[in-house]
Amino acid sequence: MESQNISNEELNLSCGNSLIDNDFDPKNFIHYCDLAEYVVKSAKLTKLPVIGIICESNLEDIGEIITEKTVIPYSKIPGFKRMNVPNNQGNMIFGNIGEKNVACFQGRFHLYEHDMDMILCTVPIRIFSLIGCKGIIISNTACGIPDKVKNDDLMLIRDHVFLPGMSGKSPLIGLKDERFGKTFVSIHNAYDKIFRNVAKNVAKKINLHLHEGIYAMCGGPHYETPTELRLFKSIGVDAVGTSIANEITVARQCGLRCLAFSLITNTCSLDSDTAIKVYQEEVLETSKNVTKTICEFIRETVDTLTI
């Protein structure tokens, strides 16, 4: 799909001007419309992005592969001043990857940094939908389950276990405006098979070992106990983290096609008596070591996708 010329009518953004800097209400659909209109006008876009990308602070270099870009710091976006992003690396970026127009949120809103507010932490997904994106690519760092994956592996997500969602913390709860989408959303084939096949072919092309597996999302910020990890392993989980599944759930409500992957930055111990301590510094170091390869993978995948 080629990028399209923008019009407010096409994007359905003519919803008023209700958004005040620190007054963003994640349950108010009109606020999303105003926010989407604000970033489109600020970036002076003439064409719609077709793909949205989310990269957390450990993988912020993904945003640097975008060319002809316009960068809007989160601090300049109304309502975003309340967002906590590690390392102050928070930007919304518009530009190109290959021949495709893209939008990127460089810096994720983690649940444990926002009082477990599921709706607030999925704001970027709804913005992608409103500004014209048809598909998304999202990434994170995760802990690998022994005998499943190893450090530095890149894991393409085939399906997920959304633990907070299973315990009543769905990002779809409390949204009464029907414009948000259907309440009862199917998550079957949430991770688009065609997108995954493209990603696997790209990995072969660039000689990247790409593991395909099941991801489990917990709330964080604490790491999981060995017993919890053994439970996950018993049901087929390959890696565990604290994001993605909530974003994918909202993306499916919005009708977006999804591709997601996790960088395995550490592997866990399943023995309570010999559990290995995990240090955030190790996670950051692993991320730095493989960033170049991940950026090449994303660039080639975006350029190859038909959407």
Structure keywords:
globular, 22% strand, 5-stranded mixed barrel, disordered N terminus, alpha/beta, 307 residues
- The fourth-level CATH homologous superfamily is Nucleoside phosphorylase domain
Estimate nothing, just give the exact number of structural domains. 1
Count of runs of 4 or more consecutive helical residues: 8
Biggest β-sheet strands, sense, barrel? 5 strands, mixed, barrel
Q: What is the C-level CATH assignment?
A: Alpha Beta
Number of strands: 9
Overall structural class, as computed from helix and strand content, comes to: alpha/beta
Choose one word for the global shape. globular
Termini gap = 5 Å
Secondary-structure element string: HHEEEEHEEHHEHEHEH
Give structural notes.
The protein has 307 residues and is α/β, with parallel strands linked by helices. It has one domain (8-304): Rossmann fold (3-Layer(aba) Sandwich), CATH 3.40.50. Helix content is 28%, strand content 22%. The protein contains 8 helices and 9 strands. Residues 1-10 have low confidence and may be disordered. This is Purine nucleoside phosphorylase. InterPro entries: Nucleoside_phosphorylase_d, Nucleoside_phosphorylase_sf, Purine_phosphorylase. One of its GO terms (biological process) is nucleoside metabolic process.
